[in-house]
């Protein structure tokens, strides 16, 4: 491939770098990189990969842009709220660099499609935000022989590495088993500082560019931990585990599995565990209404609350059991139903038998019962 006159101008700052030069820029143009997710991590990664001149950039994401995304997902804007993220990304990236070929996949990555998709690319950049997808990306990368740039974020902390590279470790070598679902709050539940995915996603783009160039020292065998509150980085060595289930000497995983079941996120119907917003509304109008215990943080309580509910943050629930009447029904409430299910399990374990969690949390209550409540 030969760069045209406009390319020579566009990439002039690259061409002056001995580690890139004309040959390196042509290698970038020949590269095929798949981005899994166009959200918090995917936004900066996509922008910098496109700006760098990566020739073909695949983007797989089945979600639509939501107003809550814009605090951190800088690939999107107000004009694309409600649009598919792949469409929103395409508009921005094409404006940034029309010379990049975009391959848009407006769908979720699944065990059924992952291998076929990964085989079309040289390198994967993982911008996923949940454990089932994270393990799927890892296994598909190992099974197709495609290295991938791993990144994750939580509140003020981030991680980054390269997994599934030849001779190097994979994600399962480090985390053989996923954590229990109740110990992993979502971004909506736990929060994340908006600039954090910008930092981690940019580092992922840096590693992807270096890998495509064949320059510098990669993060294969190294896990970088970033602490945004203290602005510190530390590094851990990660080694391939010969007993690893997917990349070990005798792997037991030779094809994608049911990752929702593996991570314990498969929905199991239990009519005794949850109460719908409509059912709670009806119960509150009876002669013996349930005790509604809101386990969110105080600032969330100030934003929106169910009339008659009591605030007992989840972190203090264990110390407030004497405040609850075990003879009456109890309904636990949080933002979207994750913490309230944890609260239900805590109460059941403490001997309270008449406990249910509000399905969908106060967000579902605001959407389906009281549309005057603020949503966040």
Poorly predicted runs are none
CATH superfamily of the largest domain: NAD(P)-binding Rossmann-like Domain
Question: Whole-Å distance between the termini?
Answer: 49 Å
Helix content: 25-40%
CATH architecture of the largest domain, by name, is 3-Layer(aba) Sandwich
As a percent range, the share of strand residues is 15-25%
Count of individual domains: 2
String of helices and strands:
HHHEHEHEHEHEEHHHEEHEHEHEEHEH
Q: What Rg, in angstroms, do the CA atoms define?
A: 24 Å
Structure annotation, total helices: 15
CATH class of the largest domain: Alpha Beta
Strand order of the largest sheet: 3-2-1-4-5-6-7-8
Task: Report the strand count.
Answer: 13
Q: Could you characterize the architecture of this molecule?
A:
This protein has 376 residues and is of the alpha/beta class. The chain has two domains: 31-262, NAD(P)-binding Rossmann-like Domain (Rossmann fold); 274-368, 3-Layer(aba) Sandwich (Oxidized Rhodanese, domain 1), CATH 3.40.250. The protein has helices at residues 5-10, 12-15, 21-30, 42-52, 85-96, 114-118, 131-144, 171-174, 187-190, 195-213, 259-262, 277-284, 298-303, 338-349, 361-368, and strands at residues 32-36, 56-60, 101-105, 123-126, 148-154, 157-163, 222-227, 232-237, 274-275, 291-294, 310-311, 330-333, 355-358. Strand 10 (291-294), helix 13 (298-303) and strand 11 (310-311) form a beta-alpha-beta unit.
């Amino acid at each position: 491939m030969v760069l045209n006159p406009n390319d020579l101008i566009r990439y002039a700052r690259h061409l002056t770098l001995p580690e890139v030069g004309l040959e390196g820029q042509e290698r970038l143009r020949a590269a095929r990189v798949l981005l899994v997710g166009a959200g918090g991590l995917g936004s900066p990664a996509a922008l910098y990969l496109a700006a760098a001149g990566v020739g073909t950039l695949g983007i797989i994401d089945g979600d639509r842009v939501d107003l809550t995304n814009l605090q951190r997902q800088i690939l999107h804007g107000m004009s694309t709220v409600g649009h598919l993220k792949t469409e929103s990304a395409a508009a921005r990236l094409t404006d940034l660099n029309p010379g990049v070929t975009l391959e848009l996949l407006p769908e979720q990555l699944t065990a059924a499609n992952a291998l076929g998709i990964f085989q079309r690319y040289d390198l994967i950049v993982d911008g996923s935000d949940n454990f089932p997808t994270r393990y799927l990306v890892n296994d598909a990368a190992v099974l197709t022989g495609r290295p991938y740039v791993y990144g994750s974020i939580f509140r003020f902390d981030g991680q980054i590495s390269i997994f599934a590279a030849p001779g190097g470790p994979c994600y399962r070598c480090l985390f053989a088993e996923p954590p229990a679902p109740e110990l992993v709050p979502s971004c909506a539940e736990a929060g994340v500082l908006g600039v954090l995915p910008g930092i981690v996603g940019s580092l992922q783009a840096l590693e992807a560019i270096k890998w495509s160039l064949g320059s510098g020292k990669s993060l294969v065998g190294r896990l970088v931990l970033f602490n945004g509150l203290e602005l510190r980085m530390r590094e851990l060595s990660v080694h391939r585990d010969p007993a690893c289930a997917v990349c070990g000497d005798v792997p037991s995983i030779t094809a994608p599995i049911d990752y929702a079941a593996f991570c314990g996120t498969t929905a199991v119907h239990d009519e005794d565990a949850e109460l719908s917003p409509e059912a709670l509304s009806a119960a509150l109008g009876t002669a013996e209404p349930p005790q509604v215990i809101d386990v969110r943080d105080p600032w969330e309580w100030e934003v929106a609350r169910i009339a008659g509910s009591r605030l007992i943050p989840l972190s203090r629930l264990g110390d407030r059991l004497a405040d609850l009447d075990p003879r009456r029904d109890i309904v636990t409430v949080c933002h979207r139903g994750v913490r309230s299910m944890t609260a239900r399990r805590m109460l059941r374990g403490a001997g309270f038998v008449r406990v249910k969690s509000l399905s969908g949390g106060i967000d579902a209550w605001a959407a389906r019962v009281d549309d005057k409540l603020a949503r966040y």
